[in-house]
Design brief:
Helix content is 51%, strand content 12%. It is mainly alpha-helical. The protein has two domains: 62 residues, Helix Hairpins, CATH 1.10.287; 105 residues, 3-Layer(bab) Sandwich (minor pseudopilin epsh fold), CATH 3.55.40. A three-stranded antiparallel sheet has the order 2-1-3, sandwiched between helices. α5 packs antiparallel against α7. The chain is globular, with a radius of gyration of 16 Å.
């Protein structure tokens, strides 16, 4: 199968002023596209060529870093775009709001723990809200690693590779992470993923 670059779920300017069209042009149109192209190049003629993206990730983890890193980054970025929406962010309602309160005591406590994970990830990586055997947890992963390789269900992610925010926030990762939570999170998407994870 040929892996393809998914369209953004909104116009490139839709997340402004929080994330600029220029950032999305580079991040989606250049970085994400390169991961897709490299994945197709590296899997051509291999046993992974006709596997699903998720199967490629699981089957190459700690076995083939070149294929794994590109496959995981294709998946991570596709997931990240869906985690954001115009006029998003803030305190969630519904099942996800209840589960966050149950797991972290309050939304405010969740937000602080999520920010800490995202800001303290050394170098490149991701901060995640995951479901782990029915419980909500916050984890951070280096480079391309997604939660699925440790059998956790991803619910929300914030990309903390510099190319995700540097054009808009320069070296101010804390400002980017705060803005992500306050103005960008697509809680409807998080709720859908949580419902799926809980079965």
């Amino acid at each position: 199968m040929t892996f393809t670059l998914p369209d953004l779920p909104y116009e490139k300017s839709a997340l402004e002023p929080h994330i600029s069209a220029k950032t999305l042009d580079f991040h989606h149109g250049k970085h994400h596209a390169t991961y897709v192209n490299k994945l197709n190049e590296f899997t051509k003629g291999t046993v992974y060529e006709n596997q699903t993206l998720v199967d490629v990730i699981k089957n190459t983890f700690q076995k083939d870093d070149k294929i794994f890193n590109n496959a995981a980054q294709v998946w991570n970025h596709s997931f990240y775009w869906l985690c954001m929406t115009p006029n998003g962010g803030g305190k969630p309602a519904g099942i996800v709001g209840e589960k966050i309160k149950e797991s972290f005591r309050s939304y405010e406590a969740f937000a602080e723990e999520f920010k800490t994970a995202a800001i303290s990830q050394f170098g490149s990586g991701w901060a995640w809200l995951v479901a782990d055997q029915g419980a909500l947890k916050i984890v951070k992963t280096p480079n391309a690693v997604p939660p699925m390789v440790t059998k956790q269900d991803a619910l929300l992610t914030c990309d903390v590779w510099e190319h995700a925010y540097y054009l808009d926030y320069q070296n101010k990762r804390p400002d980017y992470v705060s803005t992500f939570l306050e103005h960008l999170v697509n809680w409807n998407f998080v709720e859908q993923k949580l419902t799926q994870a809980l079965g």
